[in-house]
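To illustrate this point, we now present one chain and its tokenised fold:
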Amino acid sequence: PQIVLGSTAIAPEVIEVTKEMITVLQRRNPAIRPSLAIIQAGEDDGLLEINKKMARRIGLNVTQICLAKECSEIEIVTEVLKLSEDPGVHGLYLHLPQASLTSRVLTALKPEKDVDGLSDLNTGCLIRGDLSAGFVPPVTSAVLEWLSKHHVTLEGKTVLILGGHGTFEVTLRCLIERQGIEVVVSDWTSKNLKSQVMRADAVVVLEAGKKNLPPTWFKPGALVFSCDPTSKTGTLFNTVCMFTVHALYNNIANESVAESSSNSGLGYLTAAYRMKNVAQSCGRWLQEQEYQPWSLSSISLQPLTPVPSDIEISRAHTPKPVSQLAKEIGLLPEELEVYGRSKAKVRLSLLDRLHNQPDGKYVLVAGITPTPLGEGKSTVTIGLVQALSAHLKLNSFACLRQPSQGPTFWGESNLLCLGGAAGGGYAQVIPMEEFNLHLTGDIHAITAANNLVAAAIDARILHESTQSDKALYNRLVPSVNGVRRFSPIQISRLCRLGIDKTDPASLTPQEINTFVRLDLDPSKITWHRVLDTNDRFLRKITVGQASTEKGQTRETGFDIAVASEIMAILALADGLEDMKGRLARMVVGTSRSGQPVTAEDLGVSGALAVLMKDAIKPTLMQTLEGTPVFVHAGPFANIAHGNSSVLADKLALKLVGEDGFVVTEAGFGADIGMEKFFNIKCRASGLQPDVVVLVATVRALKMHGGGPNVSAGAPLPREYIDENLSLAAGGCHSNLRKQIQIAHLFGVPVVVAVNVFKTDTQAEVDLVCQIAKECGAFDAVPCHHWAQGGRGCVDLARAVTQATRRPNNFQFLYDLQLPLVDKIRTIAQKVYGAADIELSPDAKAKLDYYNQQGYASLPICMAKTHLSLSHMPEKKGAPTGFILPIRDVRASIGAGFIYPLVGTMSTMPGLPTRPCFYDIDLDPATEEISGLF
């Protein structure tokens, strides 16, 4: 047989190819450096030294995990799992005894890092012929390379694979056959072994046998390879000069160690191919990090007539697994935290990965002034994205607020005022029950965080009132194991107080007094507890009545959870660090000396960030037609800005790509939700909208045009059922015109979406569209999404795409450097149509205080009724000339706005005489919910 002791040419070729691969990768990303992690049992051996030297020569990082020689399976699995999840590791080399490579160990090995091709998935890919996903085992590559180098042509040759079973034998046989070579597999007990050896052009020994192979058995010029992973000695068989290598798992023969210095030997070549696999793995990882085109598979709708109830429609359609949806829109598995089958949190690391990806088009859905008849902004939002993605094949994302659970048990018509809604008819988010109930627990996290602040406030007042400075200081800065130190949050407080000391023993008595005494004025505490239930009897309560509270009673109250400042912060934060800073800045009250007291002063801000660390991630869901939706945050649209989160919008804008669309919804009418979206949310995010979709209905316009009032539960007056062009025209010329003008104040084009109801006549719809365009709308189109799904919104989708091509002259309504009172007056006059504002004495005093505290440059978030452009709910249409009364002014410093109170409004709704929970029930056998909607 031919003596094969090495090749001085092959390994350097592989090394140079691998180096070039790394050079190309580093041109794309200069910071990248492929990294190989080695898990070994026992000390280094010859083969390991070859691999480490090879890695250094090529330019790879090497991490070495040295386990004990007799390590347990669980120890190996633990290290494999840790390295498999480490994004800085691109290849994993298990330099372990074969007995340690159990199925549990190989299952823990991530296939994309399995550079030795050990996993079942990798083997399956190679057998199927898919070389793009798995890796060719390095020793297989080495054998194939040697075969090709020592035969001018491989076609028609015969290779005998002798001994051995399992992954290596299967992949080696498969890949050799794919080269056009005949493969014969045999073992040492075969009766035909001699004839098989004599016929073979090459013999690959996978397992040493007990008998010898005489030299006379071999065909002249035959190649012989030993790749036995069980041999420890590297002994040559009989007198045949074989090169012995244990490249897959163990030591290599002494011959290869000796020859490695001259760049020869099969072991050296195997190591070179392993490093090439690591570079290839790094390249695949880098490609995964880039923006991925969508492969969205929409779900076909078959709408029924008459349209069934929302819950019946939801249950009749099975959503795609959320992991499938995530893959279709280019999310990586590590960016997803799955909650059940149909929803998942998306990690913010996506923003870093797609940092350089251009944003898509940004579309805001707003509405005319709401009426009890409903306008359907949520259904339009969902119908629009269904039309864009499922019908026009344009990437699109809906971004919606999470509904408050309180109104869910109150009644359907009240959902929009406290969070958001799932849509309706054939334009809704599914599963509807999950959307409207706990979802992923964000509101519960807000409730817990908010009430932790409340508990901290009352506890601090109690302890300050009952302890001396020394006792307080000793408890706030205790000695632990003989060591006394400030916590990081206490050091921050010391810095704010101007005390530049870090040794607790060095503070003077005066400094200790300043440090330990927040001295909160109980009558000026602005922080309420919250609950996500409509409970009117908690609007005003007295706390501290137990004897253990030593007379520290005070009046306070509860708000609905979505009214918490923490909810507003969640919606405006652009990352975990920003959220943590905003939580720290929240003002909970005022000291007796007139200084604001913050959550950070209470020492609670770090704990709040911990409670909110998962809530900051948007929740991924889908529409009936399988298009993606982010559900995140749900700030009260009266006292807060009433929009879904900045983060949801930013993530979606990256995911849809430059030519895609993100459609988000603002609470209430354009005078409230849209104005706050522009002046508050867009300032926080730095994003600029491309178009406003203004939702209107014929029957709501009739009410603004002078139609009669509507009572809950009573039949609709005939004016809203029969054709009445004069009422519809009146509403268009008043409220619709005004809302279009408000959008134009910000320089954004408007498309009017006429949400068609079955009682509308064609003449009424045509009239509204005509007048809308006369009032300055870019376009106005009827929408039938409730009954038809995305197909009923295709005309709106086309109008929106055309509007986004127009030049955008976006501008804010006011400069932040204007005095607070002038900013309030600007909104009142330009947006609401007021002649002027009137400040109460309390409001004037508060404005002076906020100016003194340095809050004058914050934007304004008007707390006003949503039922009228004015402060008078009964005034429909577009009233003018009125004086807007400002009865009080409050501040959400963490959220970052000042909110003047116009009139009186409740932040804790109450239940009606017959709440809808009378109809809600659960089937214990099927767990099916009934009566929700």
Q: What stands out?
A: The chain has four domains: 11-241+263-272, 310-440+614-804, 443-612, 820-901.
